[in-house]
Amino acid sequence: CDPKADSxxxxxxxxxxxxxxxxxxxxxxxxxxxxxxxxxxxxGGIKCVESGGPxxxxxxxxxxxxxxxxxxxxxxxxxxxxxxxxDVLGDVVCGGFAMxxxxxxx
Length: 106
What we know:
The protein is mainly alpha-helical. The protein contains five helices and two strands.
């Protein structure tokens, strides 16, 4: 959910990955996306996704995290995965980031 969307940059050996929320906005909704649109495979076969969120100061970025996690679950992104790592902002100012934890997703 990092606004810079650069958490996967080094794993992918590239610039910032396009986020789920950005692609959903372009497509019309998250339902219009396919897993292949948002998931990139990097070093050592590591699967990478950047959730994204609204512009800083507008809306709740936690909703972007929840939307992304639900999309990934519904499309089988976690199937056959041994370990999942989340990179979230350190200066959390809203409760939306706690939602995935409460739902046993993190």
